[in-house]
Design goal:
- The complex is a heterodimer of chains A (about 190) and B (about 775).
- Chain A is mainly β and about 190 residues long.
- The longest helix of chain A is centred in the first third of the chain and has 20 residues.
- The radius of gyration of chain A is 26 Å and the shape is elongated.
- The longest helix of chain B has 19 residues.
- Chain B has about 775 residues and is mostly beta strands.
- Chain B is about 5% helix and about 55% strand.
- Chain B is globular.
- Chain B has a 22-stranded antiparallel barrel.
- The chains are: A mainly beta (about 190), B mainly beta (about 775).
- At the A-B interface, α1 and β11 of A face α5, β21, β22, β23 and β24 of B.
Chain lengths: ~190, ~775
């Protein structure tokens, strides 16, 4: 029993030694990687086909990832004229960087994996059709450049989603999962 | 993969050739039963038949059997902790039956070295074992799937490749895994974070169903799973075994091999073992379609070196586990909107074909374990053991989409990466048996550091220190065995973070301490009937994800918020087990009532959160008082000498006492009924058997509202067929086992499979397992 208590004490000492000798790499928490980009902003730019001075901008912003308090929708509205056609460009930005990183380039580079979809709420007299295409055969829409057509005066939400659809893009918006899924408030007057 | 299949084919050819070869004189059955002075069966006695056998342990009825024993003179030995070792020579010329009585080794002097397999140290807590033929039948399956054989166990799945064991409704960080004597420390904060263990390293799996913190420390709230290898060989020579397993569903090929030996003469006492496993699977198949991107690759190896001399023993063990697992592409939904679109479909939105290719998203996990032990056995059979362990667990998760970046280096990086390094040191003293008393006491300590790197944040870095001290005492008197134990644990946790705006480093420190205990007794009414009762406690500190998650949980399509002020979870588990055995009938009924205070769960807040990737339902981590009660019953009845009926029932009822409602994600009732024909000889085949079983799982009707995205799926009923035999082949033993799972190819979904929102479960699979021992 005496012997075992000596062994016990020795073991306890070894334990302490082992503990204090470990590397403590957890103390250095990884800082955000400067080259990693997150989508903070979905921006729409609509230009009236008949009158290029009629240009409308709207953006939906969330500056801190996963943080609902950092959502800013104060500019997430569009005013469009009735019975008109607009060219609508979509931009995905990382505004935590100065100047802001344009993620749209990467979406376009991987156009065969991506699809931007527009879903107007019922009652909103708006149709949006993609005018750009990827390199599939036959080519499928991408949705970064679109033609929006309005009819009568109305108001409602326009849902914009960026889907990534690796190996499964067919043009169907219900496939894959969404990197961005936001609502813009639209008024047609 | 071609290699695996060609190995399988050649193994089958060898087997067919062997079937026509001349029989070797290795056809005898040596079996028997071991009892103590009081005529009670003694389980866990190591029986060795030398020179051929590596040894086996007696089962709960004290029985053992060796088939295909060769003609000639053998030595048979019996060893168990607390009993005198017995060794005798025996001439085998026909089948032989032994009735062995072991006497207790009070004050026994001399050369007895207990090298037997470890008997688990809480004997009045509900326990089940998977070994021998039952274990062979699960070879090639994941650990979680293998253990579903046992009553009271279920598995929680994330598609076909990822499966975790569930004990009495609890899993993940409420189930502790002891792999080869070391607490497995991996990332356990998700249902897709499966145990990083190659089941082929174990030759016996013991499941402790109930609160067992007293011996094993924190986290043993649901129970403990102990994986143990065979003891190292002691007689000189080289032996080993090779497994070749093929399964049609997923076209899974698994090969595993083991070589072991002991040295004689000058190097006497030195022994070794090396072992390795390779496994590959492609897309698994439901009755109507393939599950795209569900392939996996796994390669593992381990090695052991042991030395024993004059009461001293030393060993060093190293194992490395490495796997890459594809995540079913049809189950990728970032938000409830995606999930709803997928649930509305009758078949998944992904291609359906077979391929071994693993695409994004996938996880890459590796786990290294180094274990060193030193022990000394005193003259009176008391012993002291010291165990040092170092584990390094690396988990990398690659999302379906490439990260948004222009940097080539970042494009190749996983979105999430965690490295968890754990050091542990345990010191355990086991006393000799003295006038019926025996005991175990020890101190344990471990420390872990978790380092996160990656592109999207999930949980912070941390360092923890855990220390515990325990003592368990047992007393055997007449028909009674008593057991009581007490333990104290302290946990220190420091969490390291960086302020999101200022990037300033800061940390927060937490301390937890708990006293746990156990008390239990077994009463042997007679040689057939025994009762065991136990009251035990267990505890668990809140895990890092429960404290610090704050954001969208992609795999759950929810937005979860942790709470760093959560307290320790404590359970008080009462169990009663009735065991009846006679020559024809074996019945075990285990009943339990597990009361869990401060039970931590993600409570639906009935509110939603809108962020740029969508609108999510909000879940808040909170604590409640819960209880889980249930019944595990098993029955075997020998209808004739060859025909056995077996039945297992698992019922789990989980209840949230504060909310007066059920607990979510508890297993549904499960019933298994089967009939097995066990022959003795069929032509040149020994011990042939064939059985058919029905597995029926009810619809889970005990669910709380608003806590799930879809109602529980309908119940289902599957038929499985199992068969096998052994035969001598080139002077050694070939064991063949075959199964057909889900024979009728039923399309079903299981409530505990996280991918049930998206796809059916697996269709029929034909499995062939060959094991050659030499």
């Amino acid at each position: 029993m005496k012997r075992s208590s000596i062994i016990m004490i020795l073991a306890a000492l070894v334990m302490v030694a082992v503990w204090s000798s470990c590397k403590k790499s957890e103390k250095d928490v990884q800082a955000p990687l400067p080259d990693a980009e997150t989508i903070t902003t979905v921006q729409l730019k609509a230009v009236n086909v008949a009158d290029s001075t009629d240009t409308v901008n709207a953006k939906w912003v969330q500056l801190v990832p996963s943080n609902p308090q950092s959502v800013d929708t104060s500019h997430a509205y569009l005013r469009l004229k009735k019975n008109a056609s607009y060219t609508v460009n979509v931009y995905f930005l990382d505004e935590t960087k100065t100047p802001a990183d344009d993620i749209t380039t990467e979406v376009r580079e991987r156009a065969n994996y991506h699809l931007v979809c527009f879903t107007p709420a019922s009652g909103l007299n708006l149709t949006v059709n993609a005018t750009d295409h990827d390199t599939h055969t036959p080519a499928l829409p991408v949705g970064l450049t679109n033609l929006a057509t309005t009819t009568g005066a109305s108001a409602g939400n326009l849902n914009v989603t960026l889907h990534h659809q690796p190996d499964l893009k067919t043009g169907d918006c219900s496939l894959g999962s969404a990197d961005a899924n936001v609502n813009f408030s639209v008024t047609i007057y | 993969m071609v290699r695996v299949w060609s190995a399988m084919v050649s193994a089958i050819v060898i087997f067919l050739l062997a079937a026509t070869a001349t029989a070797q004189p290795c056809k005898y059955l040596v079996h028997g039963v071991v009892t103590d002075d009081g005529h009670h069966p003694v389980p866990g006695v190591i029986v060795r038949l030398m020179p051929d056998s590596v040894g086996m342990a007696t089962d709960t009825t004290g029985s053992f059997s060796f088939s295909n024993v060769c003609q000639g003179t053998h030595k048979i030995s019996f060893e168990a902790v607390g009993y005198k070792k017995l060794e005798q020579a025996t001439d085998v010329t026909a089948d032989k039956y032994f009735s062995i009585t072991l006497s207790t080794s009070d004050n026994e002097l001399g050369d007895v070295v207990i090298s037997g397999e470890k008997v688990h140290e809480l004997r009045t807590v509900l326990t089940d074992e998977l070994k021998g033929k039952a274990l062979l039948q699960t070879r090639g399956a994941t650990l979680g799937e293998s253990l579903k054989e046992l009553p009271g166990l279920n598995s929680v799945q994330t598609g076909p490749g990822l499966s975790k064991p569930v004990i009495h409704g609890l899993h993940s960080n409420r189930v502790l895994i002891i792999n080869n004597g070391i607490r497995q420390e991996g990332q356990q904060w998700g249902s897709d974070h499966t145990p990083e263990i190659d089941p082929f390293t174990a030759n016996k799996i013991t499941v402790v169903k109930g609160a067992a913190s007293v011996r094993y420390g924190a986290d043993a709230v649901g129970g403990v799973i102990l994986l143990d290898p065979d003891p190292l060989p002691t007689t000189p020579g080289i032996h080993g075994n090779v497994y070749a397993i093929g399964a049609s569903n997923g076209r899974v090929g698994t090969t595993s091999g083991m070589l072991q030996g002991a040295f004689g003469k000058k190097l006497e006492g030195l022994s070794w073992r090396v072992q390795g496993t390779y496994k590959q699977a492609g897309n698994f198949e439901t009755p109507h379609y393939y599950l795209f991107n569900t392939g996996l690759k796994e390669n593992d190896f381990s090695g052991t070196l042991g030395y024993k001399k004059k009461g001293f023993n030393f060993s060093v063990f190293y194992s490395h586990y490495n796997t890459q697992t594809g995540i079913f592409s049809g189950a990728q939904s970032n938000s409830p909107a995606d999930l709803a679109a997928k649930m509305a479909r009758s078949t998944p939105d992904v291609p359906s074909y077979f391929s071994y290719t693993i695409n994004r998203s996938y996880q890459q996990v590796s786990h290294g374990l180094l274990k060193a032990t030193a022990g000394y056995t005193f003259k009176n059979n008391a012993k002291v053991d010291m165990t040092f362990g170092r584990q390094e667990d690396l988990r990398e998760e690659y999302d379906a989409g490439l990260p948004f970046t222009t940097s080539a280096a970042l494009l190749a990086k996983p979105q999430l990466s965690f490295t968890l390094v754990t050091h542990s040191l345990d010191l355990v003293y086991t006393s000799a048996v003295r006038s019926g008393f025996s005991g175990t006491a020890g101190i344990t300590g471990n420390t872990s550091g978790n380092v996160f790197s990656g592109l999207r944040y999930l949980i912070p870095n941390y360092r923890d220190y855990n220390a515990g001290a325990f003592a368990i005492e047992r007393y055997n008197r007449g028909k009674f065995n008593f057991e009581a134990g007490l333990r104290y644990d302290y946990r220190w946790l420091r969490v390291y973070q960086r302020n999101a705006n200022t990037l300033q480093l800061y940390n927060t420190t937490y301390g937890y301490n708990n006293v746990t205990g156990t008390i239990g007794a077994t009463y042997h009414y007679n040689a057939h009937l025994s009762f065991t009762g136990n009251v035990g406690t267990a505890w668990r500190a809140p895990s890092i994800n429960e404290m610090y998650i704050n954001g969208e949980h992609f795999s759950n399509a929810s937005y979860e918020v942790g709470d760093s002020s959560l307290k320790s979870e404590r359970s008080l588990n009462t169990s009663l087990s009735v065991n009846y055995t006679n020559s024809k009938l074996r019945i075990t009924a285990d009943m339990y009532y597990n009361k869990i205070g401060n039970y931590i769960y993600a409570k639906p807040a009935l509110a939603s959160v809108t962020i740029i990737s969508g609108t999510y339902p909000l879940f808040l981590y909170t604590q409640t008082n819960a209880n889980i009660k249930g019944l595990d019953a098993s029955l075997q009845y020998d209808l004739t000498n060859h025909l056995t009926f077996q039945s297992k029932t698992t019922i789990v009822l989980g209840y949230n006492e504060s909310a007066h409602d059920y607990l979510v994600f508890m297993p549904a009732n499960r019933y298994e009924n089967g009939i097995t024909y066990q022959g003795h000889k069929l032509g040149k085949l020994d011990e042939p058997y064939i059985g058919v079983e029905n597995v029926t799982v009810s619809k889970q009707s005990r669910v709380p509202p608003n806590s799930d995205f879809a109602p529980p799926p309908a119940g289902y009923s599957l038929f499985n067929i199992n068969g096998g035999f052994t035969m001598p082949l080139l002077k050694h033993l070939l064991t063949v086992s075959a199964s057909v799972n889900n024979t009728t190819n039923v399309a079903y979904r299981d409530y505990l499979n996280r991918f049930r929102y998206y796809a059916d479960d697996l269709g029929a699979s034909y499995v062939l397992r060959l094991k050659y021992s030499f």
